[in-house]
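FW: tagging you since you asked about this chain on Friday. Here's the raw sequence from the shared folder, copied in full. Didn't touch anything.
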Amino acid sequence: MTAPRIDLSIHHKPKGASDRIALGFTKVLRWTADTFFAERYGHRAVVLETVAAVPGMVGATINHLTCLRRMCDDKGWIKTLMDEAENERMHLMTFIEISKPTWFERAVIIGVQWVFYLFFFALYLVSSKTAHRVVGYFEEEAVISYTHYLAEIDEGRSENVPAPAIALRYWGLPEGSTLRDVVLVVRADEAHHRDVNHGYANELAGLPMGEVAACPPHIPLEPTWKRAA
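HL: got it, structure written out here
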């Protein structure tokens, strides 16, 4: 399996105050990550993927409850957002095998997760359009970060270690795959999430959704009851 080709140049130009707020917030977080992690991209991935896995779960939860109250169809949003949350969690589980987080980084994760969860939950209740735009901009930055990570690997500054077994199983990568192969499929995942969330924000604003980057195939994670059957 090879990662699908993606457009690295995509950037949603902000239109209106909510878009500018979303972009400004994203740039602040980007500056914080750059300051804290510098070029330690493996450790950056571990911490940031714990944050990236939050919005999908929040969006799915709120949409689920909204559909129950209104007794209406979700148009596929709930499953899409749940899949996004699961996909980001698998990114985390993969990079934990590659870059062992320190105890300090684990403490940071605990604090950041709760703060970001509460913030994003409140944001989604106030303006789901802005929330999805924030995620779209987050994913734009993720694509940039993983592109830089690839350059680090290609130029020999980061060791191109063998891909962990969890990555081989989840993405169906062939034996002998390396960290570079993992970063390529993770970057393609992020590009897909970028386009989906910008598309949802556009839909909520009454605009066309636009093209969505292809998502790399994943091996479905079976629920416990199916494995036990």
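FW: The first helix runs from residue 17 to 37.
HL: agreed, and The helical segments are 17-37, 41-70, 77-98, 103-126, 128-154, 165-171, 179-204, 224-228.
FW: great, closing this out.
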